[in-house]
Amino acid sequence: MAYKFVDNYREKGARKKLVEILKERGISDAKVLRAIGKVPRHFFFDETFWNQAYRDIAFPIGDGQTISQPYTVAYQTELLHIQKGDKVLEIGTGSGYQTCVLMELGANVYTIERQENLYARTIKVLPGMGYQANFFLGDGSKGIEAHAPYAKIIVTAGAPFVPEILLKQLRIGGILVIPVGDEKSQKMITVIRVSENEYDRIELDTFRFVPLVGDQAW
Ligand code: SAM
């Protein structure tokens, strides 16, 4: 992977086009589109593949890892309704692209990854790009109790069920966004914590994520 942070007119232009594509696909939140328009996605790719960075596709970027499809990132981010200063727990840091989008929206991001090589890479790459998130290595299916409650929780891997322990780490009024299903397809679920013991659950579109692996997962 190249860490040459060069954002030239070609990449800026491609990023603008990506934003237009996401609008056509139904992403309507102007703040989310602006954030996607700001994060240099090609920084997560080897320079050889910069011409792929602004296509609306997931892409392998080494170490058995895939950077999420921009549409999926935008879709989950829209559901979170991020407000400036929101404390957000992201489970599944992966490349760190989603982390950067959340930070562009003003979130204070706590992000956890179970794979050490990915964790080691993002703790170098993101601060190098100017994104100072709070990075953790471990099993995020249990959340991070020590920093709870969170205004928002986003899970970027497919879970077999909604872990109860994550619901308990939401503040009242907080939102959890999590794909739930089997290994082939998952429904995007949002859960809003309405009161101490009440939750509203909404089931949305179908996606395909890599599995959430851990204690409260596969
Ligand atoms: N949103 C990321 C991006 O923008 O590149 C992509 C995330 S990738 C689809 C899902 C990530 O979740 C993988 O990196 C995987 O290792 C991680 N993961 C799976 N189970 C996990 C767990 N229990 N705790 C933390 N991370 C986990």
From TrEMBL:
Gene that produces this protein: pcm
Localization, UniProt: Cytoplasm
SUPFAM superfamilies: S-adenosyl-L-methionine-dependent methyltransferases
Keywords annotated in UniProt: Cytoplasm, Methyltransferase, S-adenosyl-L-methionine, Transferase
The UniProt record lists the keyword Cytoplasm: yes
Enzyme Commission number(s) from the entry: 2.1.1.77
Main location: cytoplasm
Name assigned to this protein: Protein-L-isoaspartate O-methyltransferase
GO biological process, one term: protein repair
Residues forming the catalytic site: S68
Purpose of the protein: Catalyzes the methyl esterification of L-isoaspartyl residues in peptides and proteins that result from spontaneous decomposition of normal L-aspartyl and L-asparaginyl residues. It plays a role in the repair and/or degradation of damaged proteins.
One Pfam family, short name: PCMT
Keyword Metal-binding: no
PANTHER family associated with the record: PROTEIN-L-ISOASPARTATE O-METHYLTRANSFERASE (PTHR11579), PROTEIN-L-ISOASPARTATE(D-ASPARTATE) O-METHYLTRANSFERASE (PTHR11579:SF0)
GO cellular component: cytoplasm
Family according to the record: Belongs to the methyltransferase superfamily. L-isoaspartyl/D-aspartyl protein methyltransferase family.
Catalytic activities: [protein]-L-isoaspartate + S-adenosyl-L-methionine = [protein]-L-isoaspartate alpha-methyl ester + S-adenosyl-L-homocysteine
Example GO molecular function: protein-L-isoaspartate (D-aspartate) O-methyltransferase activity
Domain of life, per lineage: Bacteria
InterPro entries: PCMT, SAM-dependent_MTases_sf
